[in-house]
Amino acid sequence: MLSAKRLQPTSSLTRSIRQTARTPARSAASPPLRMISVVSTVESVPRGTGTPAPSLYQRIRKVLTRDLLVTLAMGQVLSLLICAISLTSKYLADDLHANTPVFQSFLNYILLFLVYTTTLAVRQGEGNLLAILKQRWWKYMILGLVDIEANYLVLKAYQYTTLSSVQLLDGFVIPVVLLLSWFFLLVRYKAAHFVGAGLCLLGIGCMVGADILLGRQQGLGEQKLFGDLLVLGGATLYGISNICEEFIVKNLSRVEFLGMMGLFGSFFSGIQLAIMEHKELLKVSWDWQIGLLYVGFSGFMFGLYSFMPVVIKRTSATSVNLSLLTSDLYSLFCGIFLFQYKFSGLYLLSFVVIILGLVFYASSSTYVVQDPRVYKQFRNTGSQLANDPTQLRPGVPEPSVTYTSLGPEPGDELPVRVD
Predict the structure, then answer these.
(1) Which of 36, 38, 115, 355 is the most buried (most CB within 10 A)?
(2) What's the pLDDT score for residue 308?
(3) 414, HSE (Cβ side, Cα atoms, 13 Å)
(4) Which residue range forms the structural domain that includes residue 209?
(5) Looking at per-residue confidence, does 34 or 175 come out higher?
(6) Average pLDDT in the 167-186 region?
């Protein structure tokens, strides 16, 4: 067995051991002296030689790992939940004339309250509901307001602008999440991440273009500028809510986030419902169909809110929002069968481009700088923290960085061949 020590940078190391077999007494008739030579050679192989180049199939297998496929699948589950939410909302608003978006959100927050807030209430220690409220109640109050108004602004925008504008401008959440992750979560991205995000946005543009060509300009569009501003405001609030959610589920707990959202969300949405939507609620013609749709909507929303923190903790808020871009396409595909929408090949192209962008984004890992002082030393892949005693003062914690990479790290052992 070869030792794990690095070989010296010589072209060949040769070690010869010669042993001479001698007889105790040689005579004239004795055979000539025989020499036995054992030669052991270990050669270092120059980098790039000795191993064949990986095939296309091997390269694809290296990119499409099991973890990547699981991540993509989890993101698409979230998209399907949003698709189901959109379909139930459309049936309630268009077919049954129940325009109650605040009431629908209120039902979801009540479910979160019953499940997660009560779980916090029966906990012991620092994870107890009262202990959390004493420490950071005002932060969750602001977060609850942000989440409620994000949903309200986007739903309200449908009354003033077109469906295509909502779908296109809703993608504004992507740059918002990227910027907030960079400055507040200290996430550092690579070129592959920006390429992937750009491809996903290109896919959304392709979908909107197909809608325009097919004449699917649903929405009043009478005050289009005001409606567009509502979408941009809602997308910005969505980005803020998602970044806060990522920080909480990765540093505190998923149950704490959902419990606080249930508490403050139900409180403020209840007040908003009583002020703005009580008349609309009285106009609803209640029957079993409407009741079933409300139950279905609440169940899908509860599933979305419960499962999204799991995916965000595994990936990031940016990755989740990129995955959610396919939800509009799922709604369109369902609309082809349920509402007789016209089909366009651009929809399939848009779906393929978005999935390709997701693969690009998820195939490369990000790294999180835990202290801004070290970022300049980690701009180049593989650089290491300088051992400069003048930069570290006694009593000051050493800056740290969390860095992950899927590629080989500099300093790995050279491949060897044993002959």
Answers:
(1) 355
(2) 95
(3) 17
(4) 63-366
(5) 175
(6) 88
The DSSP string of 303-348 is HHHHHHHHHHHHS-HHHHHHHGGGHHHHHHHHHHHHS-PPP-HHHH
Contact assessment for residue 158 and residue 219, using Cβ atoms and an 8 Å cutoff = yes
Does 375 reside within a domain? no
Which residues, in sequence order, are CB contacts of 5 under 8 Å at separation 6+? none
Task: Check: CB of residue 212 under 8 Å from CB of residue 334.
Answer: no
- Residue 387 in any domain: the answer is no
What is the identity of the amino acid at 201? L
**Token pair 């044993």 is at which residue?**
418
Q: What single string gives the DSSP state of each residue in 28-85? A: TTSPPPEEEEEEEEEEEPPTT-SSPPPPHHHHHHHHS-HHHHHHHHHHHHHHHHHHHH
Phi, psi (deg, nearest 5) at residue 363: -75, -15
* Nearest residue to 332 via CA among 160, 206, 228: 206
How confident is the model at residue 140, as a pLDDT?
94
In this structure, the chain runs to a length of 419
Q: Which has the closest alpha carbon to 321: 362, 366, 380, 377?
A: 362
pLDDT digits (tens, 9 = 90+) for 106-151: 999 999 999 999 999 999 888 899 999 999 999 999 999 999 999 8
Q: Is residue 232 part of a domain?
A: yes
> Looking at per-residue confidence, does 400 or 129 come out higher?
129
Total domain count, the chain: 1
Distance CA 97, CA 139 (A): 37
CA separation for the pair 275, 209 (Å, rounded): 39
What Cα–Cα distance (Å) separates residue 311 from each residue in 42, 53, 92, 202, 306? 49, 35, 29, 24, 10
Three-state secondary structure call for residue 390: coil
Looking at mean pLDDT, say which of 1-5, 10-14, 110-114, 135-139 comes out highest.
110-114
C-beta atoms surrounding 100 within 10 Å? 21
Cα–Cα distance, 189 to 383 (Å, whole number) = 16
Q: For residue 170, with 0-12 CB atoms within 10 Å meaning exposed, 13-18 middle and 19 or more buried, which class applies?
A: buried
